[in-house]
Amino acid sequence: MDISVVIPLYNEEESLPELVEWIDRVMKDNNFSYEVILVDDGSSDHSWKIISQLGEKNKNIKGIKFRRNYGKSAALHTGFSETKGNVIITMDADLQDSPDEIPELYRMIQSEGYDLVSGWKKKRYDPISKTIPSKLFNRTARALTGIKLHDFNCGLKAYKNEVVKNIEVYGEMHRYIPVIAKKAGYKKIGEKVVQHQERKYGVTKFGIDRFVKGYLDLLSITFITKFGQRPMHLFGTLGTLMFIVGFLSAAWLGAKKIYFISKGVPADLVTKSPYFFLALTSMIIGTQLFLTGFLGEMISRSSSNRNNYLIEGKNNL
In the CATH scheme, what is the homologous superfamily, with its name and number, of domain 3-227? Predict the structure, then answer.
C-alpha cells in the first residue's frame, strides 16, 4: 500500500464527508493505493455515525472510536499502530489542511529520502491571538531542539512507515513528533510550505491554554531528549556546583572568623551573617539535587527498555 492517512478528530461531523471525498479524489487522480484511518477521540456529536456510513461506501475508510476524549497524541499513536502504507500522512479533520498537498509530501518521502516532512502554514487564516503566540512558541522550540522548522504544531505531516512504528507519542507530545523522531535516530527532517484554509465548519477545539501546555511539554521533551537516560549528568552537575559554592562560602566565613580572633579583633558570630544561611541553603539544595540525579539514574538503569536500540542494518552476523 502506498499511503496511510491518519486523521484524529473530535466533533467534526460536518466536515468528514467533504474531507473523505477530497482525499479519495486526490488518491485516484494520482493512482495511489491508500487507506484513511479516522480516529474519533470521544466525539459527542454524530461523527462516529458518519464514519461508519463512509466506511460502508468506501472500504478504504477505516474508523477507530475512543470511549472518551483522550487527546490528539493518543489518537495519533493508536492510528499509527494500525497503518500499513509505505508513507503515513497526518492531517486535521477541519478542512484547514489541504489533501492536494499529499502527492508532493509523498514524493519528498519516497524520492528525496526524508524520514519526516512537516507542513509550514506560511500564510495562515487564524486570528492574531493565535498567530503571534504560535510564532513565539515555534521560535523557542527551534532554539531548544535545534530542529529548524517554522511550524512544529502543523497537523499536516508525512512520515516513513518505520518512523511511526518506532516512536511513541504520548501525553500532548504530538507537537514534538519531529523531536521524538530525531531522538530515535531519524534525522532527515524536511519542511514544505502548505496551503492553509479558513475553517469551514464548527469552531476550534483548542484554546489559549495550549500554548502554556506547549511550553511545559517543550521543557519536558528537551529534558527527556538530553538527559532522559543520564539524569545524573544534569542534577549531579548542578548539585555539585551548588554544594561547592556553598561550602567555599561557609569556609570563607569560618576562615575570616578565625583570622579576626587570631588578631584579637572582636568578631560577630558566624551565624549572625546572612551569608552563612545562604551558604548553608546552597549546600542543602546542592545535596538534594545530587540525590535527585542519583535516584533518577537508579530508576533509569532499572528500566526494562534501557538497552532497546533501533538497529538500521546488520552485516555478516
Answer: Spore Coat Polysaccharide Biosynthesis Protein SpsA; Chain A (3.90.550.10)
